[in-house]
Design goal:
By secondary structure, this protein is an alpha+beta fold. It is 53% helix and 7% strand. The strands form four sheets. It has a five-stranded mixed sheet, sandwiched between helices. Strands 1-2 form a two-stranded antiparallel sheet. A two-stranded antiparallel sheet has the order 3-4. Strand 10 and strand 11 form a beta hairpin. Helix 1 runs parallel beside helix 24, helix 14 crosses helix 16 and helix 19 packs antiparallel against helix 20. It binds zinc ion. Zinc ion binds next to helix 16, helix 17, strand 10 and strand 11.
């Protein structure tokens, strides 16, 4: 019944007279534009199918192998380029004009295949002073693959994700510190010895110069929320201040921060083995009226040697009208999950938030695309933040951490993203800034982390190298996540433990437009007012100020305060384990990851 209910709501989107242009299917105002638009849809599908094949998930799709798809892509793309040129530049409706602009813009981003996140570049090229900005970025991403995937620890190799897992779960402080320092070769590859012409510092100078011409991701995010970059900075600082106020005065070492905030993960990790991730995820979305199996989503969740080291979600094919009926979008989720745990589960739920987002789009082909980066990342967290609510844990895991521990685990991750957002915002504004000094200042002031300006320990997120400025979509995105969660709760009701109306309702109110509606208008209409950080600040203030321990040593004790244990969690410290997530990202341009990957 739940699914039928949501299906009927989804269908109403296609028929409702007040629906947008896509209503009876994408009805372009001009037949000519419509024809080009369906050609565009073919090219767009071929592009995403090639990326799917190159990801290693499939060798054929719809009976065609890679060569056949590539030929199809090339021919259709060449035709599309010509047809787009031939379209009239005047006498079109505003909507057609916007659709043409959207197609032209999106076409530029088509790659015609290629494995996401595996640049052909070499890390060693990052040291070269003679390479241009785009090549420098590629080289830095290659460092994350080459070095980040084989860090030396205790005589063997671990990857960046495992190292971060260990930072959360290793009780022995000395061992935890050793894990932290396993990142040194990566930090050095990214930022040398922090000299003024280190690879990162040259790269951020290039990024800043380019942003002066074309706008940065930070400018775009500010526009999407309806404020300017100065206001973005004020909001980020407000959020960090809220965390600071909720965390007492005790300083922690950088190698202890994640461990101390991650107790909920350690308490529940035992109950979330890897094989339980997908069943829990699917059950939650079924309860939300969005059955992943019914949506036809492809999941590729096991690690492979050449696979992207990040989790992401992308289109396989784009929904469109075929013979008068809507043919749904097919999405795929890629992730390299070796282990389970609450954080990984939360990430998988987040990726499915992206699936829900793109499968709910009902619009003409030009707009069957991701909404803004900011909205996409913010929306994906709407369902995933529930994983840090005790009632969600009780229902889907059978055990729960206390509210305080759960919230601390969640918002420690959010504020790290906010810290990186502020870091990038200030680096863009003044690219000659010493990044180590800046990161030290931010993390010391707001996260109470002991200063270590000699270490480039901020350099653990791929986005910092590949898409400078992107982090704001997480940091500022949290503002929209909190707003949407609060508004949905008030308008539709609770959904932390499922709600069969949820998918149909968010589809109707937020998702069906795809890339057509700008985020600012969408949120203004949704909330009935401009977005503000208030909802997020209130969430962070649910955390009660604590006076935590100085060094993290305390957590190596077996004497754990009983308030840190849920009644449902009999596990003592020796039984606790946790896994932290790999990073996640969505789309070519969209990463996620609540914690520093
Ligand atoms: Zn995401």
């Amino acid at each position: 019944m739940k699914n039928l209910l949501s299906l009927s709501l989804a269908c109403s989107l296609l028929l409702s007279p007040k629906s947008i242009s896509a209503d009876a299917g994408p009805v372009a105002n001009s037949k000519k534009v419509s024809e080009v638009e369906y050609l565009y849809a073919d090219v767009s599908d071929a592009n995403s199918i090639l990326a799917t094949i190159d990801s290693g998930l499939l060798s054929t799709y719809q009976g065609k192998d890679r060569a056949a798809w590539e030929q199809f892509y090339r021919e259709k793309r060449a035709k599309l380029a010509k047809e787009l040129e031939r379209l009239p530049s005047s006498g079109l409706s505003g909507e057609d004009t916007r659709a043409i602009a959207a197609m032209r813009k999106q076409m530029k981003a088509f790659t015609g295949g290629g494995a996401l996140f595996s640049p052909a570049a070499k890390c060693q090229d990052a040291a070269r002073k003679d390479i241009a900005y785009p090549e420098l970025k590629s080289a830095l991403v290659a460092c994350f693959v080459e070095i980040g995937n084989s860090l030396n620890f205790e005589g063997s190799k671990i990857n960046r994700v495992s190292a971060l897992d260990l930072l959360h779960e290793t009780s022995d402080p000395g061992r935890r510190k050793a894990v932290f320092f396993a990142f040194v070769p990566l930090w050095q590859a990214i930022n040398g010895n922090n000299e003024p012409d280190s690879p990162y510092r040259r790269m951020i100078a290039g990024a800043s110069a380019q942003a002066a011409k074309n706008r940065s991701d930070i400018d775009n995010a500010a526009r999407d929320i309806g404020i300017d970059a100065a206001e973005v900075e004020r909001w980020l600082v407000q959020i960090l201040d809220a965390w600071r106020e909720s965390n007492g005065d005790t300083m922690v070492e950088p190698w202890d921060f994640r461990f101390e905030a991650g107790q909920a993960d350690r308490l529940l990790g035992t109950y979330i083995p890897r094989e339980s991730l997908q069943p829990i995820n699917q059950r939650y979305y079924r309860d939300l009226g969005a059955d992943p199996e019914q949506l036809g989503t492809l999941y590729d969740l096991s690690p492979r040697p050449e696979k992207a080291a990040l989790a992401y979600t992308e289109f396989v094919t784009h929904g469109r009208m075929v013979n008068g009926a809507w043919r749904p979008t097919v999405a795929r989720v890629s992730a390299p999950y070796e282990r389970g745990g609450l954080f990984v589960l939360n990430e998988l739920v987040h990726e499915n938030g992206h699936v829900v987002n793109i499968t709910a789009i009902r619009n003409r082909p030009a707009f069957v695309d991701w909404p803004s980066d900011l909205f996409a990342e913010a929306f994906a967290d709407v369902p995933s933040w529930s994983a840090y609510e005790p009632q969600w844990q009780r229902r889907y895991i059978g055990h729960e951490a206390t509210e305080q521990l759960s919230l601390r685990a969640l918002y420690s991750v959010v504020v790290l993203d906010v810290a990186w957002s502020l870091f990038e915002l200030r680096m863009f504004r003044a690219p000659l800034t010493d990044p180590n000094a800046l990161w030290t200042e931010i993390t010391n002031r707001y996260l109470h982390i002991v200063p270590h300006p000699e270490l480039s320990w901020w350099a653990v997120r791929v986005q910092l190298a590949d898409l400078p400025g992107y982090m704001v979509n997480y940091g500022l995105g949290a503002v929209l996540t909190a707003e949407m969660r609060q508004h949905i709760l008030g308008a539709l009701g609770a959904f932390d433990t499922g709600n069969p109306l949820w998918y149909g309702w968010v589809s109707e109110h937020l998702l069906r437009y795809g890339s057509e509606r700008d985020t600012r208008t969408l949120m203004q209409d949704f909330l009935g007012r401009p977005a503000s950080p208030q909802a997020l600040l209130e969430q962070i203030h649910r955390l009660q100020p604590v006076s935590l321990h100085g060094t993290g040593d305390r957590f190596s004790n077996s004497a754990r305060p009983s308030t840190f244990l849920s009644p449902d969690c009999p596990a003592g410290p020796s039984q606790l384990s946790s896994q932290r997530p790999p990073s996640s990202w969505r789309g070519y341009l969209l990463w996620d990851l609540p914690i520093p990957q």
